[in-house]
Amino acid sequence: MAQPQPCLPALASAHALLRACPLAPKEARALLAHALEVPAERLIAHPESRVDQRAQEAFSHLVSERQRGTPMAYLLGVQEFYGHRVRVTPEVLIPRPDTELLVETALHLLRGRAGMRVLDLGTGSGCIGIALALARPDLWIVACDRSPAALRVAQENCGRLGVSLQLVAAQWYAPMRGHFDLIISNPPYIAAGDRHLADLSFEPRAALTDEADGLTALRTIIAGAGERLSRGGQLLVEHGYDQGPAVRAMMLEYGFAQATTLRDLAGQERACLGARRGASRGAAALASSRVAEPMRAREGPD
Question: What pTM was estimated for this model as a whole?
């Protein structure tokens, strides 16, 4: 339960406010800097800085919201992802470091291949597509989401970070035309009964779970990828730590020649790369510490 903040004079020092704050010092400093609209480093260098009543009230509100459990990213409005500060709101998921594996892998796969076409399914804040565009301005990237609010956040991030994505309102592949060299997605994959959902109550539930076994969106994406991938194209999806075998099996079931699971920094199976026949050998060249046992389809006609 949020604790009432102590009464402070009309002008108080940053040091006094931070000392009285019940939050961890780093969080308190970040929230006070946000209320003051200054860099957090300024408060370290100038702890005697005076804080007016308006900023104190804003800070008190932020502290109360944090004590209630609101994630820091939503309170600050930004989250770092792949070295970039991405705008986030409660309408989109907060980007996680684990998802950077998708960007890292995609850049590896596309290395030396100019002008490739990429489809980012369920883009949310746009963090994946934007990170790819910033690293590879030559890529042609379509990013889709069914949520108009999420697309507005993605559009804002494109403007903030100076990139251009083709943003499309879509439920997965619905209005898509043409073929892509890479399809990439971080879909909702948490099962409805997973205990971790309780810890994510501030994030949009529809972006987290299918309200079933967690595989519905993954199955839809994998099943539809064959019609949208160019010859030699690849599909890269994030999944839950215990879903690797199921996702590999689905990829082979729907005609991929090979399915390779990639591990995150904690060593958990986190993403799966499906390669159509004729794909480059990029997957095999990935760092062995990130690759779990690959599965291959039996040779046969395309």
Answer: 0.87
Q: Find where tokens 């800070």 sit.
A: 59
CB 259 within 8 A of CB 292: no
Look at residue 285 and tell me whether its pLDDT is greater than 80.
Answer: no
Across 7-42, b (16+ Cβ under 10 Å) vs e yields ebeeebbbebbbeebebeeebbbbbbbbbbeeeeee
Q: How far apart are CA 26 and CA 70, in angstroms?
A: 16
Residue 289's pLDDT band (boundaries 50, 70, 90)?
very low
Cα 140 to Cα 37, 62, 133, 179, distances in angstroms: 36, 39, 8, 12
Exposed, middle or buried: residue 252 (CB in 10 Å: 0-12, 13-18, 19+)? Answer: middle
Question: Any idea which residue has 């969106």 for tokens?
Answer: 217
- Inform me whether the pLDDT recorded for 11 exceeds 90: no
